[in-house]
Amino acid sequence: MSEFEDERNLATMVTSQELIELIAGSGIEVDAATLCDDLDLYGQGFDSLDVANLELRLEQRYGVEFGPEQSLKLLTIRAFVDYLNAERSSASNA
Q1: Domain count of the chain?
Q2: For the segment 1-46, what is each residue's pLDDT rounded down to a tens digit?
Q3: Who's near 27: CB < 8 A, 6+ residues apart?
Q4: Separation of alpha carbons 9 and 42, rounded Å
Q5: Domain span including residue 85
Q6: Calpha distance 34→82 (Å, rounded)
Q7: Rounded-to-integer distance, Cα 76 and Cα 25, Å
Q8: Which of 46, 70, 75, 94 qualifies as a cystine partner to 50, CB 3.0-4.6 A?
Q9: pTM score, whole prediction
Q10: Residue 33, number of CB atoms within 10 A of its CB
């Protein structure tokens, strides 16, 4: 990824729809069309491996790391979106 692409990626906000599309293409066995951004992921068919897979894909795509504390707190798509945007905003201001 070029420096310009890095800057552009930091300048745009991550949306719930982007995450749902990422989930749809990730091999996670849930029906992405039925996902709701404010419902618990585990209640929507995710298991702990699915969440770990999602975190790995998000780390690769957005360059944001997830530690054990975040893994326990981020339970909805909206929570992931908020965390990603906050972390990316902090990184662009640094």
Answers
A1: 1
A2: 444 444 445 568 999 999 999 999 988 999 999 999 999 999 999 9
A3: 53
A4: 29
A5: 3-93
A6: 20
A7: 18
A8: 46
A9: 0.84
A10: 7
